[in-house]
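User: YheC/YheD family protein. Structure?
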Amino acid sequence: MLSFGLLTLHTNNEKTYFMEIAKRAHLLDIECFRFIPSNIIPNSEKVHGDKFNPLTNEWMPSEFPIPKILYDRCFYGEDTHSKQCKAIVKWLKTRNDLLFLGHGLPNKLDLYNALANSKLSPYLLPSKLVTSGESIVHRLIPHKPVMIKPISGSQGRGIYYLEKKNNEIIVKTDKQKKSITRTFPYEDKAIAWINYLIKDRSYLVQEYKELTNENNQPFDIRVLLQKDEYGNWHVITKGIRTGKQDGIVSNVSAGGTISPFETWIESFSVSEKEYLVQEMSDILDSMPIILEQNFPPLFELGIDLGVSKDHSIWILDINSKPGRKVALTINPFLEEKLYTAPLLYGKTLVK
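Assistant: Predicted structure:
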């Protein structure tokens, strides 16, 4: 029987998703395990974790060999535990006896540099590493705001909007479902704040695009792509995420709402609709191919696309460990497909 391991930093993360995968595993002749990478015992290479019991539908504490197929759902931070687990997973990926569903993607800046040399470059927001507060503040021009964001961030956390008005620097961010604005009356104060921000974490800076609707709410299109059991990429679903009025991000974790893509696209004229759909199709068809030409193999992708008022399309973010909230909110009937996809693709890798 095949062994399938779900990797997580905390066993209370993604409990529903892991449970639904595990409940379907035995029907495909697969044993399912859940564990934290740091719980691998170095000498024996056994793991302290949980084994799923299909008779009771419960996770049972257990010690077991490292599973053959591994599904990495670790969301790493800057803490010591994250760094420890990240190093262990990196080691696991070097082993020829183990199979990862996907190997993940590098940080936002490495991703940008790879895509900047591809046919998708016209859809990218020009991005640079933030080297100092001076490099940002001294180049700020009135009416030309910028965004700074962590190169390894997720869920819209740590994203800031910066604008120069007269001699003041205005900073906006969305935190805990609230929009926060701070004004620096002097440039040196803003410079000191940015230098403190980047002291322990790397950020990139991008030109700000007004990607808002008629109510001044930020919105984007979240697209979920996955490989099927034959290794072919498919668009599973597209949904609209809409943020708070006057906010800067549309992430659901920051208070955003979810609505169907089809409702949004129908608001355009026939010619506009055809143009937008074709442009998005070209991006989504090309993206997985280009990424796998530059980086190790992947299993799934969450791609965020922005649309300007002039209908230009921008690639905002690419995530190799996407959630399923948008997909299941729009179409709950996708449950079976989403919960069995990792298992079916895992069996394909073994073959």
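The chain has nine helices and 17 strands. The chain has three domains: 2-100, 108-123+212-350, 127-207.
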